[in-house]
Amino acid sequence: MIAEDDPLLREGLALLLRAESFDVVATADTPDAFLRAVDEHVPDVAIVDVRMPPTHTSEGITAAVEARRRHPGLAVLVLSAYVEQAFATELLANGGSRLGYLLKERVGRVEEFLDALRRVVAGGTAIDPEVVAQLFARTRPDARLERLSPRERDVLALMAEGLGNAAIAERLVVTDGAVHKHIRSIFAKLDLAPTDRADRRVTAVLRYLEDVNRR
């Protein structure tokens, strides 16, 4: 399911996904049409533009939240023309699975876009690297974060994008064992105990973003 008011991008996405053997059950150019289509077709994943008619502010993200309320298993990949701090932070803060936030320019990098989409459908998260970079830059220092080495910060940034250990190892050109070691160290330095029932990967990322929510 695609919700995008730009006809060129909407149809382009539909063509791309069909070429990659995705079944595009419907497209919509307004939030109301999107919600009606979701109720009718109950898709596995929805690709939703943040800004949609009539005001082109937050209608898309509001519709996506409502769609998830109606259909809790719905995977949602949000597209935005630029980094919108409040939406990206809320996406991580909710701690939900099957969620993604990408800049629209990422669609042009077809393999990266499809990898993110498949990751979201599979139950993971996918956060645009530029979103992660900007949010990290805006976050005030935390004493616990100062304990991390530069490489551990690199690993944590890739965790925030939603990458698994193998993908992180490939990106950093290190072994899986090295990534496991760095992640264990990150959890220890951030005081995240092995017995903690919360998702320690998500909690570690939120330690970077928690001050943003207070601004």
From TrEMBL:
Protein name: DNA-binding NarL/FixJ family response regulator
4-aspartylphosphate: modified positions: D49
Keyword rRNA-binding in record: no
Source species taxonomy: Bacteria, Bacillati, Actinomycetota, Actinomycetes, Streptosporangiales
Coiled-coil region: none
PANTHER family linked to this entry: TRANSCRIPTIONAL REGULATORY PROTEIN NARL-RELATED, TWO-COMPONENT RESPONSE REGULATOR
Domain of life: Bacteria
Record-level GO BP terms: phosphorelay signal transduction system; regulation of DNA-templated transcription
Keywords annotated in UniProt: DNA-binding, Phosphoprotein, Transcription, Transcription regulation
Membrane spanning residue stretches: none
Chain ranges of the Response regulatory domain: 1-119
Taxonomic source organism: Thermocatellispora tengchongensis
Annotated GO MF terms: DNA binding
Residue ranges occupied by any HTH luxR-type domain in the UniProt entry: 141-208
InterPro entries according to UniProt: CheY-like_superfamily, NreC/VraR/RcsB-like_REC, Sig_transdc_resp-reg_C-effctor, Sig_transdc_resp-reg_receiver, Tscrpt_reg_LuxR_C, WalR-like
